[in-house]
Amino acid sequence: MTHTVQELVAPYPVVIEVRIAWGEMDAFQHVNNVVYFRYFESVRIAYSERIAFMEYMNETGIGPILGASSCRFKMPLTYPDTISVGARVPKIDKDRFTMEYIIVSHSARKVAATGDGVIVSYDYRQHKKVDLPEVLIARMLALEGMDPSMPPDLKHGH
Question: What is the secondary structure of 125-148 as a DSSP string?
Fold first, then answer.
């Protein structure tokens, strides 16, 4: 069964489109694996902008820091193509959250890669990990279409 790009990215509340650049390809004639992490970074920043995480960081010093990231390559990407890159947050813990990513090729109408990242709440003024602010948790839950008043054990992924 063939899916549309929109169907494949539908579960992701933040989606960006990126045109693949010629210079992103390597000697093996496909997009270099490092570039996939740049795509993840771009959608992670777009997600952060949607919940005003950077504004919060400018006001308080508390912001996101990437703790871990992984990618599962499903198919090679090549120029010319446009991709949709999606992000969603399925798990929120006390001081961190997990973000899942998807990259979909428009020309192939297939998933090119999936991945995830662990984003830690970090106080850049105090140089230490801190609890994720409740206001940001509420913004993420709202963006994800979840009820911000749900019991803490559910929203924190326990």
Answer: TTTEE-PPPHHHHHHHHHHTT--T
The answer to whether the peptide bond before residue 80 is cis (omega within 30 degrees of 0) is yes
pTM listed for this prediction: 0.91
- Please give the backbone phi and psi of residue 153, each rounded to the nearest 5 degrees, phi first: -65, -25
Residue ranges of alpha helices (H) inside 17-151 are 33-50, 53-60, 134-143
Nearest to residue 22, comparing CAs of 12, 32, 8, 33? 32
Question: Does 21 or 154 have the greater pLDDT score?
Answer: 21
Cα separation, 43 vs 99, whole angstroms: 10
Structural domains in the chain plus CATH codes: 5-144 (3.10.129.10)
CA separation for the pair 31, 34 (Å, rounded): 8
Query: 50 and 16 in contact (C-beta within 8 Å)?
Result: no
How far, CA to CA in Å, does 86 sit from each of 45, 106, 111, 120?
Answer: 11, 13, 11, 20
